[in-house]
Design goal:
Pnp Oxidase, Chain A, five-stranded mixed β-sheet, about 450 residues, binds manganese (II) ion, nine-stranded antiparallel β-sheet, UbiD C-terminal domain-like, 2 domains, alpha+beta
Length: about 450
């Protein structure tokens, strides 16, 4: 089953009893976030009544790894391979002349009042769009990039957007800026679940030369259709709920933040970030506003599942016999990874650890890599801890890498002297742990074998 839009996925979740309708009235300021947190990791929510708006808010659609797997029509252990395959095999997207996202073309643009955009956390700078994906085109090649970024509503037609260094969107913007031009963008809110997940793909697995709408289309088996935006040169999924069109303004930066981030701490102090000037808005009749609560399980999975694919793709180049990479929910699907392999050589685990930490966007936050054998389920925390308990000798099996670049980890910020932080750099100590059965004494191999009950589990 492939879900062509958000609505069909919501129907699916509803049919499985995993969409909770909330009838009580909630405020955009903290009220939406309270309900999102209440059902975090459990079920999707549909907030019918948001004070001051007649547009419902939906969140937590990816409340579990299983929900993501259902959206992609795969089982949990096939997700990475499916994503890697799509990244390598983009499929041209069909362009149509019109469709649902054009049902309403707004006459006036007022982001302060049009949509129930929430303020999530106590110290957030304000109301943020967190579930929208940004579609932008390389001004020279026309290749399209999809990405997530937090977007602060700063005025009726003004958005502050946080874009990280080295990231594709910033590179596209700086390319346009060098020519004195704005970068056209469309922020689409409430797309189909697959395109939404594609928005989370790290830069390494889908380089700038690859069109990300085509990667989304590949994941959707060719079901994606796009339509030209009204006021900017960007194509948008025709079944999106809402499209906000605008231009990233050259040579302008304003302070943005603080913002309660995926890491469950505030990203602060505010930094200078680009501005989007909104040029137009279109949406479906009775649109649904899709939100994503930062630091929710949904936020972790959106960031984590595409990163797992990126890391698996990369680590397999060093150690082809790696089967799975799992970024654990307890570490925000960013900081801790479990690598499962069929060990062929005693040096394979350390090789895999070094490859996992090879600098890239997906490994930036990574701080601990645990390598396990293929009799251990890398997605089962109990099984992984058992492997650590029974197969690790810490002095031999621990790889310590000090002074590695990172970003949001508070302990790294604390550890890095301010003289270094002032230069825009943060470092941390990263570790790898080999929790595989040692090959040194083959005669002891049976000591490590799990006990079994014949014909039992
Ligand atoms: Mn990209």
């Amino acid at each position: 089953m492939s879900f062509k839009d958000l609505r069909s996925f919501l129907e699916f979740l509803d049919s499985r009893g995993r969409l909770i309708r909330i009838h009580e009235e909630v405020e955009p300021k903290f009220g939406i976030a309270r309900i999102e947190r209440k059902y975090d990791g459990q079920a999707a929510i549909w907030l019918e009544r948001v004070k001051g708006y007649d547009i419902p808010v939906v969140a937590n659609i990816f409340h579990s790894r299983q929900a993501v797997a259902e959206a992609l029509g795969a089982n949990i252990k096939e997700l990475s391979e499916k994503i890697i395959k799509a990244a390598r095999n983009p499929v041209k997207v069909k362009e149509v002349n019109s469709g649902p996202v054009k049902e309403v073309i707004a006459n006036e643009v007022d982001l302060m009042n049009m949509f129930p955009i929430p303020m999530h956390f106590e110290k957030d700078a304000g109301y943020y769009i967190t579930g929208g994906i940004i579609i932008a085109k390389d001004i020279e090649t026309g290749v399209r990039n999809l990405s997530f970024a937090r977007m602060w509503i700063k005025g009726k037609r003004k958005i502050g957007i946080m874009v990280n260094h080295y990231r594709h969107l910033l590179r596209l913007f700086e390319k346009a800026e060098k020519k004195g031009k704005p970068l056209d963008v469309a922020i689409v809110i409430g797309v189909d679940p697959i395109t939404w997940l594609e928005g989370g793909m790290p830069d390494r697995i889908v380089p700038l030369e690859i069109d990300e709408l085509e990667v989304a289309n590949s994941l959707m088996n060719g079901g994606l259709e796009v339509v030209k935006a009204e006021t900017v040169d960007v194509e948008i999924p025709v079944l999106a709920e809402i499209a906000i069109e605008g231009k990233m303004v050259p040579e302008e930066r304003e302070f943005e933040g603080p913002f309660g981030d995926y890491s469950q701490v505030y990203d602060t102090p505010p930094r200078k970030n680009p501005i989007i000037e909104v040029t137009g808005i279109t949406h479906r009749q009775n649109p649904i506003y899709l939100d994503c609560l930062p630091s929710s399980v949904e936020n972790f999975l959106l960031g984590g599942i595409p990163r797992e694919a990126d890391l698996l793709d990369h680590v397999k180049k060093a150690v082809p016999n790696v089967n799975h990479v799992h970024l654990t929910v307890g570490s925000c699907c960013r900081f801790h990874a479990v690598v499962q392999m069929e060990k062929k050589f005693e040096t394979d685990p350390h090789k895999a650890i070094i490859a996992m930490f090879s600098p890239s966007e997906a490994s930036r936050d990574l701080k601990l890599v645990i390598v396990v054998d293929n009799d251990i389920d890398p997605f089962d925390p109990k099984d992984v801890e058992w492997a650590i308990a029974t197969r690790t000798q810490w002095d031999l099996d621990l790889v310590v890498l000090p002074k590695m670049a990172t970003a949001l980890d508070p302990s790294a910020k604390w550890r890095t002297p301010s003289s270094i932080r002032d230069r825009g750099d943060i470092y941390t100590t990263k570790v790898g742990l080999d929790a595989t059965i040692p090959f040194e004494k083959p005669e002891l191999f049976e000591w490590f074998q799990k006990i079994r009950i014949p014909d039992g589990k």
